[in-house]
Amino acid sequence: MAEPTLVATAWTSAGDTSPMRSPATSPVPISDRIDAIAAAGYTGMGLIADDIAAVRDSIGLAALRDMIADAGLTHVEIELIERWWVPRGDAGNTYAVRDLLLDAAEVLQPTFIKIGSRTGPAFTDLDHLVAPLRELADQARQRGTRLAIETMPFSGLATVPMGAQLAHMTGHSGVGLLVDSWHVFRAGTPLTELDAALPGEMVFGVELDDAAAEVVGTLFEDTVNHRKLCGEGTFDLSGLIDLLRGKGFDGPWGVEILSESFRVLPVREALTSAAETALAVL
Q: How far apart are CA 161 and CA 177, in angstroms?
């Protein structure tokens, strides 16, 4: 087996910020983030929309692309488009983020754009999502990239099997799944159910992280403030990794750590500890 390769997903290198802040722009200069990611041995990185907008308005996206390449990073992913089915001009639409990330994809050529759904109860019907998702996938393809659905247990697309069902209904080769261990285990999805629901070709990306047995606060508060480094919690990460490898996925593996204690660490220290613990599990 080849040595596993890792991606520092957006929050892992962002420093002292979180999804609870608006804007959630990283306080760490982008050049420092890229240098730290490369120094810790990752082969790729992720960025959120707020950071992409800040870079676009300062050094420009072409300069960012060149910095990433010069550092030897070969995998880029960008996020997150939510409520992508809401028409432009309607209340709650997210076309500002959608347009930003599609434009950025033309320059950065990410492996995928991550998409979510919306906070709230799980959808009881997915039919209304199919046509808008096909349209978005066509637009992503025109920019040379794909869409990875990230399911979240506090959202409309609550489980990976739901995400797999939607991807199947959409019938578009540019639509797949981002499988995050926190969202798998906090949704209570047994690995046997995941195995049955998840075709290997749908797995566009994986994110590894861990957590305590009990949820602290709401699910959203728990995912933002209380994740643990891989192997320091209670998730069956080895079982999940074996399942995904059995379906043909073998990296690069994303590492996504969010917690109150992690985000205040010096970024180089945080990235190194996240990489070392992920590699130990892999």
A: 10
